[in-house]
Amino acid sequence: MINTETDIQNSHSTLENNSKPAWYHYLKYLLVGILFGIVFVKAEIISWFRIQEMFRLQSFHMYGVIGSAVVTGIISVWLIKKFNIKTINGEPITISSKKFSKGQIYGGLIFGFGWALTGACPGPLFAQIGSGSLVVIFTLLSAVLGTWVYGYFREKLPH
User: Fold this and answer.
1) pTM of the predicted model, to two decimals?
2) Do residues 123 and 43 make contact, with C-beta atoms less than 8 angstroms apart?
């Protein structure tokens, strides 16, 4: 296939449009992450004691936080579907239906046991480390290792 001058110009403009943004464009994500971490710390969501209270059924605090997140998610998905909301780039948002499998029960149990034992959920791990709980680095490394092990054995596990 012979490239014409127009083909070459189109390929160059495509490369320019698909190039990675400069590093400072990612600062907004860092700032949102820091803000999210501060909210987690102030709301005591990263507190090992709060998480233990939840698993011992001694406090409503964490159930309230999780419940409000679920309600917010339900309302958000409903609004996205009802008003056909698009992404910031104008692309349609598609939410595909999920199929239930017994592997989700096993995975949920393993996740819950790990959460109860370590007092850490994957979301707040970085906030816990950032607030000075450096021992949580071992929990983070274990989560990464667990993800790798799952990926390695995925085809042999029940789905």
Assistant:
1) 0.66
2) no
d(CA 72, CA 66): 10
Within 8 A by CB and 6+ apart from 57, the residues are none
- Count of CB atoms situated within 10 Å of the CB of 131: 16
Residues in the chain: 159
The residue to which tokens 């999780």 are assigned: 66
DSSP per residue over 61-104, as a string?
HHHHHHHHHHHHHHHHHHHHHHTT-B-TTSPBP--------HHH
User: How does pLDDT run across 11-56, given as a tens digit for each residue?
Assistant: 444 445 568 888 888 999 999 989 988 998 898 988 888 988 998 9
pLDDT tens-digit profile of 126-145? 888 888 889 989 999 998 99
Name residue 127's amino acid: A
Can you tell me the distance from the alpha carbon of 148 to that of 153, in angstroms, rounded to the nearest whole number? 9
Instruction: Quote the tokens at residue 11.
Output: 């390929």
- Identify the bridge partners of residue 86 per DSSP, sorted by sequence position: 92
C-beta of residue 115 within 8 angstroms of C-beta of residue 107: no
